Backbone:
């Protein structure tokens, strides 16, 4: 095993530096700041009584501190991050070049619309492209990310029924394989969540769904392909059941990477859909954010001449008769969910990604993602890895991801999904999502996306097979890992003990520097 990650005994930044030490000082800027503050009357009650307790370091100390931390970290530029459903695909650096262009980064959200016609034109076209890709009619780019996109969909469902005088519709149906944010978003919107089980074939249990649908059903939230990586084969039946009671179908776009170019949610009967630009369309995810979660709707009639596109939260970009673009709030919209129009950076990224690939390229993205997943499954079988099994939809091809159960290996050796994840870290790989979805015991949710190479898939599959062999020979060795990474395995008992405290020497350093008092 030749993987060894950097391991620095790095102090926290407050423990570094020395009183009075500074980095770069630009006198002119300092003077301008002082002048500006001096000319503004600031209420006495909001003025600081003392200087902020900030670390005092030179530039070289700051640079080296964060460099050492980065050497102990792992990211998408280091290797595969197959988190499953989070679609951690590689971020093309060409897009970064344009999203960091000063003509974009120096724009102000309160500028007059006439001065940002170029950006508005891009947003206008992106709305149309996304609507076409998923088979919808109108898109708002307003939501900040996927979870807010979900909430936008829920608010739209609530608005739809309120305008129709159907306030009694207070239930949202969610499969038990759904992302955790689905029931959370529905609950935030004031709905009761009705959970539907998944059948052994990987599809939603239709009999259970039929029993749950009633006049109180406001809508259904569904991810397709599901978190199990399986396409919902009964989607058209589900659509009829929900629409029969005037419910709306909401599409969670987290797994769009598995069907893009081949199937469109709008054609399946979905009324509302959100898209994660920071997943399917490759803008940085998580710490590289921010995200963007556009929401698109079908122009379904609400009542009279009111349509779904008239009631969605947040603004749209429209093109006026004079050819100018402007931001427009739909007539019956409940308003904004955040202060400004949208997170422009990731949206520009998504626009460039679509522009670069075109319709043919987007289709190839799906082909490669699906091929990678199914090739990986075949590799595990070929390597004789019998400690991992499929609990749902055995014999079915997966789409963009798969969920393995390490339950067989646990029963034979005591080695758990968490132990396997630690073993992968020790071999230089990022671990998959573990213990989710909850319906799969000892779950390992793995997704390689379209950006991983054949060699990476083969190396990852071999690592899983090797961990299984090691578990059968010496399970305690697997349970002792990781040994080769910057941070070793913690003692879960001590970590959760109420008396676990910061070492006394560290407390003294922080108190001497005034940090503890300033954090109270």
Residues:
């Amino acid at each position: 095993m030749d993987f060894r990650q950097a391991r620095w005994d790095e102090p926290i930044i407050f423990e570094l530096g020395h009183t009075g030490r500074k980095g770069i000082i630009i006198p002119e800027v300092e003077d301008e700041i002082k002048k500006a503050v001096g000319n503004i009357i600031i209420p006495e009650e909001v003025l600081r009584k003392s200087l902020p307790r900030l670390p005092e370091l030179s530039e070289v100390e700051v640079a080296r501190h964060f460099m050492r931390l980065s050497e102990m970290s792992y990211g998408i530029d280091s290797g595969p991050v197959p988190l499953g459903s989070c679609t951690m695909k590689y971020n093309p650096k060409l897009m970064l070049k344009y999203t960091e262009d000063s003509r974009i980064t120096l724009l102000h959200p309160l500028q007059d619309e006439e001065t940002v016609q170029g950006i508005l034109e891009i947003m206008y076209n992106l709305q149309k492209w996304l609507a076409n890709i998923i088979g919808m009619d109108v898109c708002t780019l307003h939501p900040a990310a996927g979870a807010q996109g979900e909430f936008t969909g829920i608010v739209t469902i609530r608005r739809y029924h309120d305008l129709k005088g159907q306030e009694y519709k207070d239930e949202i149906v969610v499969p038990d394989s759904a992302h955790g944010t689905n029931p959370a978003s529905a609950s935030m919107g004031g709905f009761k969540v009705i959970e539907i089980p998944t059948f052994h074939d990987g599809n939603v249990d239709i009999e259970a769904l039929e029993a749950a649908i009633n006049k109180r059903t406001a809508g259904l939230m569904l991810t397709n392909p599901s978190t199990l990586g399986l396409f919902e084969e009964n989607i058209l039946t589900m659509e009829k059941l929900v629409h029969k009671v005037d419910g709306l179908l909401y599409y969670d776009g987290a797994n769009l990477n598995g069907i893009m170019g081949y199937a469109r949610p709008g054609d399946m009967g979905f009324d509302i859909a959100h898209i994660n630009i920071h997943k399917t369309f490759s803008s940085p995810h998580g710490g590289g954010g921010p995200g963007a979660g556009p929401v698109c709707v079908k122009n379904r009639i609400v009542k009279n001449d009111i349509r779904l596109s008239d009631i969605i939260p947040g603004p749209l970009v429209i093109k006026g008769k004079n050819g100018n673009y402007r931001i427009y709030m739909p007539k019956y919209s409940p308003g904004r969910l955040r202060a400004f129009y949208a997170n422009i950076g990731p949206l520009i990224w998504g626009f460039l990604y679509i522009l670069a690939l075109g319709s043919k390229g987007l289709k190839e993205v799906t082909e490669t993602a699906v091929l990678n997943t199914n090739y990986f499954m075949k590799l595990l079988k070929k390597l004789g890895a019998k400690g991992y099994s499929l609990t749902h939809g055995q014999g079915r091809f997966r789409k963009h991801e798969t969920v393995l159960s390490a339950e067989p290996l646990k029963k034979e050796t005591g080695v758990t999904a968490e132990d396997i994840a630690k073993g992968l870290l020790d071999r230089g790989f990022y671990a998959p999502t573990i213990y989710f979805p909850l319906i799969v015991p000892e779950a390992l949710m793995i997704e390689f996306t379209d950006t991983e190479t054949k060699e990476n898939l083969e190396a990852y599959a071999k690592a899983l097979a090797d961990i299984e062999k090691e578990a059968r020979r010496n399970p305690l060795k697997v349970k002792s890992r990781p040994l080769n990474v910057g941070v070793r395995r913690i003692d879960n008992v001590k970590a959760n003990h109420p008396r676990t405290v910061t070492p006394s020497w560290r407390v003294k350093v922080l108190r001497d520097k005034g940090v503890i008092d300033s954090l109270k």
Observations:
- Residues 171 and 217 are 5 Å apart (CA to CA).
- DSSP finds 18 helices and 14 strands in the chain.
- The first strand starts at residue 138 and ends at 140.
- The mean pLDDT is 91.
